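Lab notebook page, bench 4
Experiment: in silico fold of construct C2
Operator: M.H.
Input chain length: 369 residues
Purpose: comparison with the prior construct
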Amino acid sequence: MSDQDSEQRILDGTAWADFCDALKRAGDVVLRPGSPLDAFDRAEGFRYLSRLSRVALESYIEFADPLFPVLRRPAHETVKIGADNPDNYYQSAAISGAHEYKITGTRNTVHYLGLGSYAGSYGSKTRRGQTGYLDAREMKIAPDGRFEIILSCNEQPGRNWLRMEPDTSSLIVRQTFQDRAHERIAELQIERLGGARTPAPVTPAFIDRGLQAAAAYVAGTASIFADWAEGFAKHKNELPRFDPAIAAAAHGDPNIVYYHGYFELADDEALVIDLVPPACEYWNFQLNNHWMESLDYRYHTIALNHFGAKARPDGSVRLVVASRDPGVPNWLDTAGHRRGTTCLRWVGAKQHPDPKTRVVKLVDVAGLG
């Protein structure tokens, strides 16, 4: 579409009408046959679409200029996407493989820091996947915690370098707490190297294309993770290892092995998960709703990690998912949900032992061996 076409679409209102129509069609994901039929899950589904709309407009209108990238939070307490990790402080910025960038920062004390460059988005029809990755263990960091990273297509010998490719379009930063109450996130700033220092005024083409991209993101994101959830629901109350190629295409962290599942429990039932955690930098288990939004971790214990979970003398861990506290360690609260998705992560593990799951009566949990 030419700039002239976009100008006409802005003048006659077609750009906005098409955006609104596309959002309306995105609601079909909530109403499709594989989605839950009850009003509670559907209400969460429509709230989910409203959240995706909010973050899409930030991503493709407000902070979409790769000439002037801004680190923002694409997922947080009230925007949740694709089993977002409650221990993560996510950041993202629009970038382009046609340019070079510099990140300056101070490491501070957050447990894990990883940065990835990516091509495409959940709503794009172009290639989608990772184009480079760098974590703090590989970086040169000064004694005072300061560092610089160059983002470019050309290798930067002797420097912290995050690889890009010509079609790179975004940066995603994952900062992972093991103990959120006592750790400080890394302080990061990003700038494009070279060129003007002041953004140009907005153009009709920028807004027209941004609205189209935002609508595509809402529909694409909702569809992708609804597809995943429906697949997981075919094997309820299990926790199988997830295909790493699919995780990578969905902008996953290459240092993580994922296990995704689906729980469905009656009020008097519990899902018991037995783990033998491998040697790794971090692991966690979490509960999400059907739409793969993490449950509300502000008010409920819906996730545990290697730091907070209580292990048995042999190092194994038993997690219990239930609607009420069974009076045993490592209870995870379903927060009013009878169904939803689950996620287990091993980060930096060389071995990947499969978890074991079973459903038992809630009254029997305390007596399990």
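Observations: The chain has a mean pLDDT of 96. The CA atoms of residues 296 and 302 lie 7 Å apart.
Next step: discuss at group meeting.
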